[in-house]
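Listing S7. Sequence submitted for prediction.
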Amino acid sequence: METNELSARARGGTELMLQALHARLDPELLQQFQIIPSRVRSLDSERKRILWLHNKPCREESSFLEQAERRAEFAGIVCVSHYQAALYQMIPGVPYSDMIVLQNAIEPFDAYVPRRSERIRLIYHTTPDRGLEILVPVFEFLATRHPDIELDVYSSFSIYDWTERDKPYQALFERCRAHPRIRYHGAQPNAVVRDTLSRSDIFAYPNIEPETSCIAAIEAMSAGCLTVCAAYGGLPETCANFARLYPFSENMQDHAQRFATVLDDAILTVRQRRVEDEYLRTQQVEYFTRFYSWDRRAREWDAYLRSLL
């Protein structure tokens, strides 16, 4: 699926990544490759094909990779994390020698400025199916203990031009709207979310999806947010030991209790605004800005594609 085959209105991570990559690579180099993000719909016989995996392996979209002759249709297979590469090696049986890991990337934020507000701002900025149903009741509970916390929620499937998927979550969205310290924004352009991230203290993410990577976490941590999330899927790799991780549980009640305990402690940490914690945030921002910057990743992609010519 090429750029022009993606939904013109979709603004999810895969779409933003593909657009950003095309904007940064040499057009003459790009003309020699068909870069296919995750789902194979058509193959260009005139160009070298790169399968750029973003999702977990599934029977519908990945089973063809079990066959060596089908894998040979691609000049390269790119994964966005080592966790994802391990899944593809174990499930459809893709040899490690057929894959390369080129991790996700973002536009760096402006220089980090320590937060000084008396209010503690939490943010959730991904689709509702990834943990919003845990976050909302936990926030409602913690709001009774912490009168200085507030929450911004940027969450809707309309970011993928898929509004019908929002129907099961309408009651949850209304619950957000009804709370005096929750601001529900729906889906907004990435620039709007980034502006809020630069003024937020905590990315509150009780993730129930085993993500292969997490651009929302990368952006939050690059912006200087303390991130609270479960040690599940690719999140430990993505967060590089800077996040407040807690053990994942399949039981939603247990998960909520574990998340609430760690989030409560994170709120206390932020409220203290200690010098050593600000130093750790500065180190976090420097790491995510350097390691996940598009300048670095575009150079890696350029070198990789040229090595295939």
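Caption to Listing S7: primary sequence and predicted structure tokens for the chain studied. Residues 252-272 form the longest helix (21 residues). Residues 3-105+293-307 form one domain.
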